[in-house]
Amino acid sequence: MTAHASSAPRRSDATRAAILEAARERFAADGYERATIRAIARDADIDPSMVMRYYGSKEGLFAAASAIELRLPALGALPGKHVGAVLVGHFLDRWEQDEVLTGLLRVGVTNDAAAERIRAVFTDQLGPVTAGVCPDPADAPRRAALVASQILGMALARYVLRIEPAVAMSREEIIGWLGPTVQRYLTAEQP
Question: 90 Cβ partners below 8 Å, 6+ apart?
Fold first, then answer.
């Protein structure tokens, strides 16, 4: 095997990683509509044709750049009375540490592709976790939607719109307010 052949995959992986990093930053800063393939390529220090080669289109690049694993905790292993607080705390940690998640929310407010991505992330990842702790797994999709309304609402207020009382609240205050509501959505009997 030649040196060229063995180093090609590494260059390819590095190029893909540079494109994704530049795309995440550009989509978060400019939103989906204003972000361009040319700007992303410039940020990644590559030719725009390479972005198209690897991702096919702006939509394909956005889908790859917004692939998010929520890394949800195993709620079924926790005492039932703590699942709401644990889930709210988990999401606060994710929002604080993951600009891609915040960027996706920002873009999702005005872009159908991003909104669909958010729906898929929450449906595919939050739905099964909800089914594992709610009294009737058949009711999990509605309960997951209610949980998402609280989580996404706080994220929008705190990290995107930056509504001052939400920004100023401590982590403990937010968990204290939202935890019981999320807990009820997850575990209470249906009203």
Answer: 71, 72, 73
- 15 assigned to some structural domain: yes
Are residue 59 and residue 137 in the same domain, yes or no? no
Residue 70 lies in a domain: no
Structure-derived torsion over alpha carbons of residues 7, 12, 15, 16, reported in degrees to the nearest 10: -150
Q: Do residues 8 and 83 share a domain?
A: no
Co-location of 81 and 163 in the same domain? yes
Q: Can you say how many angstroms the Cα of residue 144 is from the centroid of all Cα atoms in its chain?
A: 15
pLDDT tens digits for 118-158? Answer: 888 888 999 988 988 899 999 999 999 999 999 999 999 99
Q: Which pTM does this prediction carry?
A: 0.76
Assign residue 162 a region (left: φ > 0; alpha: ψ between -120 and 50; beta: otherwise): left
